[in-house]
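Example 9 (inverse folding). The structure is encoded as follows.
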């Protein structure tokens, strides 16, 4: 990203400028009708300043030398004004000077023109209209290109370029007063860095009819039975389980209380790290922003910390929180490179990035075979979790009963509930790499003012024992 940087003479301990330039194109077809092409572009810069022990920031869309200098001066004034009331003294904080580059896979590859996208989407839409009971259906592709550049007073200069694909496919069926919706890996669950190969990886072409058939199957299926059962969660439900009951509870600023009056606190406390049993011996969780195709991969976070793969939970024991450099200094705990902002007009805060459950040793057939009485659940449909990220209730799009190690009938409205602090300890089997999928969400919300950011999750299929299961009639 070429910039005309002014000769900056800021009376401050440290400053940084973080530039963001993002362009988004969205193509969609609903019920065989092409929707208007949508295009958007957003550019701006966030200035951050440490001065007199305080912290200040200011954002602007004026990228001229005068605009950048004015933003830095406003940030400096805020830093000085808040220094005596700050939660922490910024003078001991790191003064990063990173230099490097990052690029998504296929960053320079050819981009299909909108006409090609619409032809693909229309084909899948047409294929989904297989029965009068199919009452709504849609297919879409969103493409994001973004360039981020971080420049610091210590000589840091990092440029990161992203290319992101977000395909969507959903079909709703209605019969006998009931409506069921089936999607391809959830609402925007397929979200990866790269080019058109992302769609090919998930079999997007040709999926319209299959998803429609499963929607019809669901609307005619019985409700999921209630009771204590083993649960086999598919990767596209595991991503939600990881996100809500591991990712958010481990965010260090949340543990320190920063989210208390907005999206809740955490049942995790600082003294738990290093010894608390978060899950069974089979639970191994990594923070890994280095996996190329995953949505939240990057080379450096928005404070300039180099991204590295790090263990958060190993053999069930909690080792490390999700806290960037500022939170690490506040808490006196080690963390990771996860200080991230969703755009140029927001400051970085502690966010999940790529949070993954590492694969185990069981094939999918072996996971099924070990279950005497259970339910295989696919694709998140609903979620609810308390303000300490502990008690939860999640629903899925599709369930299949398992009896004596065999998959039997399909059921609709499969739901389950539990407590994070004990649910992960019931983890009894973890699928091998053949069961793993790389998914995520582009819509993780947090912070005041609100920030909506992309998060990646990779997970195999997993078995949990003695879970409270219920259906739509419970």
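The amino acid assigned to each position is listed next.
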């Amino acid at each position: 990203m070429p910039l005309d940087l002014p000769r900056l003479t800021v009376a401050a301990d440290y400053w940084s400028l973080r530039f963001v330039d993002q362009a988004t194109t969205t193509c969609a077809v609903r019920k065989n009708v092409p929707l208007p092409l949508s295009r958007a572009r957003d550019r701006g810069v966030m200035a951050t300043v440490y001065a007199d022990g305080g912290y200040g920031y200011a954002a602007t869309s004026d990228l001229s030398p005068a605009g950048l200098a004015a933003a830095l001066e406003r940030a400096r004034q805020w830093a000085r004004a808040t220094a005596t009331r700050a939660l922490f003294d910024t003078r001991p904080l790191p003064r990063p000077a990173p230099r490097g580059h990052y690029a998504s896979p296929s960053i320079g590859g050819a981009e299909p023109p909108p006409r090609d996208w619409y032809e693909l989407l229309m084909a899948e839409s047409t294929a989904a209209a297989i029965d009068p009971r199919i009452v709504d259906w849609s297919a879409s592709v969103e493409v994001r290109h973004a360039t981020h550049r971080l420049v610091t007073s210590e000589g840091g200069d990092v440029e990161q370029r992203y290319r992101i694909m977000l395909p969507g496919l959903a079909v709703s069926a209605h019969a006998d007063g009931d409506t069921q919706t089936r999607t391809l890996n959830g609402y925007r669950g397929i979200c990866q860095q790269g080019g058109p190969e992302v769609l090919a990886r998930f079999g997007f072409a040709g999926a319209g009819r299959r998803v429609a058939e499963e929607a019809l199957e669901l609307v005619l299926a019985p409700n999921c039975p209630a009771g204590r059962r083993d649960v086999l969660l598919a990767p596209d439900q595991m991503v939600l389980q990881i996100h809500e009951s591991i990712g958010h509870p481990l965010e260090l600023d949340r543990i320190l209380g920063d989210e208390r009056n907005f999206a809740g606190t955490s049942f995790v406390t600082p003294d738990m790290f290093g010894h608390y049993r978060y899950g069974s011996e089979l639970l191994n969780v990594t923070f890994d922003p280095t996996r190329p195709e995953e949505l939240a991969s990057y080379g450096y976070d928005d404070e300039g910390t180099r991204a590295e793969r790090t263990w958060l939970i190993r053999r069930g024991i909690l080792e490390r929180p999700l806290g960037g450099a500022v939170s690490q200094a506040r808490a006196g705990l080690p963390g990771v490179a996860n200080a991230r902002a969703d755009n140029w007009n927001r400051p970085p805060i502690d966010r999940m990035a790529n949070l993954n459950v590492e694969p185990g040793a069981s094939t999918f057939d072996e996971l099924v075979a070990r279950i005497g009485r259970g339910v295989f659940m696919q694709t998140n449909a609903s979620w609810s979790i308390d303000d300490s990220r502990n008690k939860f209730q999640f629903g899925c799009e599709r369930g299949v009963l398992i009896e004596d190690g065999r998959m039997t009938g399909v059921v609709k409205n499969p739901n389950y509930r539990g407590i994070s602090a004990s649910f992960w300890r019931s983890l009894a089997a973890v699928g091998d790499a053949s069961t793993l999928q790389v998914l995520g969400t582009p819509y993780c919300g947090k912070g005041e003012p609100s920030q909506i950011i992309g998060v990646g999750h990779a997970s195999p299929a997993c078995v949990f024992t003695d879970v409270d299961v219920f259906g739509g009639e419970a």
